[in-house]
Design a protein that fits this description.
With 335 residues, the protein is mainly β. 0% of the residues lie in helices and 32% in strands. The strands form four sheets. Strands 1, 2, 3, 5, 10, 13, 14 and 16 form an eight-stranded antiparallel beta sheet that branches. The protein has a six-stranded antiparallel beta sheet with strand order 4-15-6-7-8-9, with no helix packed on it. A two-stranded antiparallel sheet has the order 11-12. A hairpin with a 2-residue loop joins strand 13 and strand 14. It is elongated.
C-alpha cells in the first residue's frame, strides 16, 4: 500500500481556531473555550427548530431577552455573549478572521448582533475595550465602528449589506503592529494594511480599510502602543433590542490562510510522486505493461533521478534491428 503526500505550493499559515460545529458542540474541540450564557447559543442541524440554513451544522447566537418585552426589565435583560481567547492566552499581531453567516429567524424586536476583538483574557463587549465593532444588522445592512470614535453613537460607517436568507462570507485581515505595514496577496485579494488597521471583504468584495484602536484616554486598553494586540473575540448583543445570528466555518489564522469557503479545493483523481519506489501507487486497477521497462529513479540508481526526490523513468530499449531484436520481439513500452 502506498501513502501519497500532497506537495504544497507554499506552507499553509498557522490556524489558531477553527470551528465548523459538526460535532454538535458550541466550542468545537478547544476545551479552554467556554461561552457565557450557553442557553442562548445552540448548534443547529437539519432536525432542529430552526433548521440550519448553512451547509451542515451551524451555530445559532440568539438574544431574545429584551428590556420591556415579555416582562423583561433592565435587571433581567442579560445580553448574550459568545466569547473566548483564540490563541491560548497569547496576543498576535497579524490575524485573519473569517466565517460564514446569515440572520436568524426575523423578529420585529431584534436589531443586530455585533463582533469584535480584544486582548487575550478580556472580552471586547465593553466600549472601553474594543478596537472596533462590526454590526450585522437585522435588516441585512452592515455597519462598522472603528478608530478613536469606536464608542461614539455617531461613528457608524455603512460598509455593505448581506442577504438575510442565504449564506454569506466575511474575511477580515488585521495588522495590529504599531509601526510596520503588512502586505498580503492570496485568493481573498491583495493589498497593504497600514499599522493599526484592517481590511474587510464581504462576499468576495473589498469593503474598505478601518482603524484598530480607540482613544487611549477613555479606553481600558491602548491598542496603538504595542506590536501584538489581538487575542480574544466576541459575538455579542449589547443593546436593549435583541438580535440573532447564525454562523459556520469560523477560522482565526495567520494572514493568508485559504479556507474551503474562500477557495474550493480541486478534486485529485490520481497523484503519484514515486517516493515509495512503486511505479503504480495504490490504485490496484492500474497495471502498467512491461513494468521491467519502467524504473523508479532515486539518488542511488543509474541513472540517478534528475528531478527532485524520486522520479519515474519510462524506457523503451527494445528496438527492431538493434542488438538482435526482431519485429517479433520488439515490444513497445506502455505506462
Amino acid at each position: 500500500m502506498v501513502a501519497f503526500a500532497a506537495i504544497p505550493l507554499a506552507a499553509q499559515p498557522v490556524t489558531y481556531l477553527m470551528y465548523d460545529f459538526e460535532d454538535g458542540s458550541v466550542g468545537g474541540d478547544n476545551n479552554s473555550f467556554t461561552p457565557e450564557q450557553e442557553t442562548e447559543i445552540r448548534v443547529l442541524n437539519d432536525s432542529t427548530d430552526p433548521v440550519s440554513p448553512l451547509d451542515g451544522n451551524s451555530l445559532y447566537i440568539l438574544d431574545s431577552s429584551i428590556d420591556g418585552v415579555d416582562g423583561v426589565t433592565s435587571d433581567t435583560d442579560d445580553n448574550v455573549r459568545y466569547a473566548g481567547d483564540f490563541n491560548g492566552g497569547t496576543n498576535v499581531s497579524a490575524l485573519q478572521v473569517e466565517f460564514d453567516f446569515t440572520r436568524g429567524p426575523a423578529d420585529a424586536n431584534f436589531e443586530r448582533m455585533a463582533f469584535s476583538l480584544c486582548h487575550a483574557g478580556f472580552e471586547p463587549t465593553s466600549s472601553s475595550r474594543r478596537p472596533f465593532e462590526l454590526r450585522l444588522n437585522e435588516d441585512g445592512s452592515i455597519d462598522m465602528r472603528s478608530g478613536a470614535d469606536v464608542g461614539s453613537l455617531n461613528s457608524d460607517d455603512d460598509i455593505g449589506s448581506f442577504d438575510v436568507s442565504v449564506s454569506n462570507h466575511i474575511v477580515m485581515l488585521f495588522n495590529s503592529d504599531d509601526a510596520a505595514a503588512l502586505d498580503y496577496d492570496f485568493s481573498v485579494g491583495s493589498g497593504t494594511i497600514p499599522a493599526n488597521a484592517f481590511h474587510v471583504y464581504i462576499n468576495d468584495s473589498y469593503a474598505g480599510e478601518y482603524e484598530i484602536g480607540l482613544d487611549p484616554t477613555s479606553g481600558d486598553i491602548d491598542f496603538n502602543a504595542g506590536i501584538a494586540d489581538l487575542g480574544s473575540f466576541a459575538f455579542y448583543q449589547d443593546s436593549n433590542s435583541g438580535g440573532s445570528l447564525i454562523i459556520d466555518n469560523m477560522v482565526f489564522s495567520e494572514v493568508g490562510y485559504e479556507s474551503t469557503s474562500a477557495v474550493d479545493e480541486p478534486v485529485s483523481y490520481l497523484f503519484y510522486d514515486y517516493e515509495n519506489g512503486d511505479v503504480g501507487g495504490d490504485n490496484n486497477s492500474f497495471t502498467p505493461e512491461q513494468e521491467t521497462n519502467l524504473i523508479v529513479l532515486d539518488d542511488t540508481t543509474d541513472p540517478t533521478s534528475p528531478l527532485e526526490g524520486n522520479s519515474l523513468y519510462i524506457l523503451d530499449s527494445s528496438i527492431d534491428g538493434v542488438d538482435g531484436v526482431t519485429s517479433d520481439t520488439d515490444d513497445n513500452v506502455r505506462y
